[in-house]
Design a protein that fits this description.
341 residues, alpha/beta, Spore Coat Polysaccharide Biosynthesis Protein SpsA, Chain A, three-stranded mixed sheet, 10 strands, 16% strand
Length: 341
């Protein structure tokens, strides 16, 4: 089996402690690998934090490389339009790792910085992708979004936080150009940013992984019936596969979810992965750093408290209407506004 693992992240300086915790979880649980090469596409990470990341990686005898984050939007003339203040354009760098990484890197595991690797990646890394350019885990997305975002009937919309990319195929099939074509189809208006660009460019050219490799928060707090009530998702996994993933995760994605207050590294959190996050943070150079501040506004705190005291079914019904009707209506209005047919 191939035991030379290549992993890529992207991060800002603010997120360096979260990145460091993710890297720590990766290193702790993959000591059977002969080599681990970590590539960080970095946005002005401070010298101090770079040193900390280098020291952490060196403790396990692994290598880490830092690559300056380019402005993909400007570089490729994508003319991206921001659909939400929370969605950042630098996330597009994961779609151009074939150009950002050395040509000697033929395959890469891309991880968002807000994941924990809690088991061995050996089986995942040695997976035969067959004819596919990439592999990912299906996201919990309602059918109306598939239609609005022009995702094929045979395709599954995958989460972009955990991806295996065959960089040789990525280069040969010029996937970067396909991303540009898809973005231009929407005149730069990319709802869900690079995740939609990934799925739109690749369509059904994504190998579907077991959900163990990207367990996100909604799956940890809602059962199948509740998820369907909320998202009205038709495409996806069998419930037994989701339950197995939650019981035996390999990669946990500490995503936002409105029923959960804050993320594991923030004050006043009740995130189900807080204890697990702190376990890995404790072996990093940031172990004594305080929690991130709770930056919610007064309005946001009131909304969260209201959500917490209402019956869950009522909350899910209201959220479902907002997600499947109001949000879709808003998406269509904006697509029309920006001249998308």
């Amino acid at each position: 089996m191939n035991k030379i693992l290549n992993v890529a992240y992207h991060s800002s300086d603010l997120f360096a402690p979260i990145l460091g915790t993710s890297i720590a979880s990766l290193l702790v649980n993959n000591q059977e690998m002969d080599e681990i090469n970590i590539y960080v596409i970095q946005d002005n990470i401070s010298i101090e934090n770079i040193k900390k990341l280098e020291n952490l990686t060196a403790e396990y005898g692994r290598k880490i490389y830092f690559i300056a984050m380019p402005d993909i939007d400007e570089l490729l003339g994508l003319k991206l339009i921001r659909a939400s203040d929370r969605w950042q354009f630098f996330s597009f760098c994961r779609l151009y790792l074939d150009k950002l990484l050395p040509k000697t890197v033929h395959k890469i595991l891309y991880l968002d910085s807000d994941v924990l690797v809690v088991d061995s990646l050996l089986e995942l890394w040695n997976l035969d992708l067959k004819e596919y350019c990439a592999a990912g885990v299906i996201d919990c997305l309602g059918e109306k979004y598939y239609k609005a975002l022009k995702i094929n009937q045979n395709a599954n919309y995958c989460n972009s936080g955990v991806l295996i990319e065959d960089l040789d195929k990525w280069r040969n099939y010029e996937i970067g150009d396909k991303v540009v074509e898809y973005v231009k189809l929407f005149n730069g208006y990319m709802y869900f940013v690079e995740q939609t660009a990934l799925n739109g460019a690749l369509q059904d050219n994504i190998y579907i992984l077991h959900p163990r490799y990207n367990v996100y928060t909604i799956e940890q707090v809602l059962n199948r019936k509740e998820r369907f009530l909320l998202r009205r998702n038709i495409r996806g996994y069998k419930e037994e596969d989701i339950q197995d993933a939650v019981r035996r995760p390999v990669i946990i994605h500490m995503t936002r979810f409105f029923l959960v207050t804050n993320r594991p590294w923030q004050e006043n959190t009740n995130h189900p992965m807080k204890a697990e996050f702190l376990k890995y943070k404790a072996v990093t150079p940031w172990k004594d750093d305080p929690e991130f501040k709770d930056m919610r506004s007064k309005r946001e705190r009131i909304i969260q408290k209201t959500i917490n005291v209402l019956p869950k079914k009522i909350v899910l019904l209201v959220a479902s209407f907002l997600y499947n009707e109001v949000r879709i209506w808003s998406l269509k209005v904006n697509l029309k506004k920006y001249g998308v047919k």
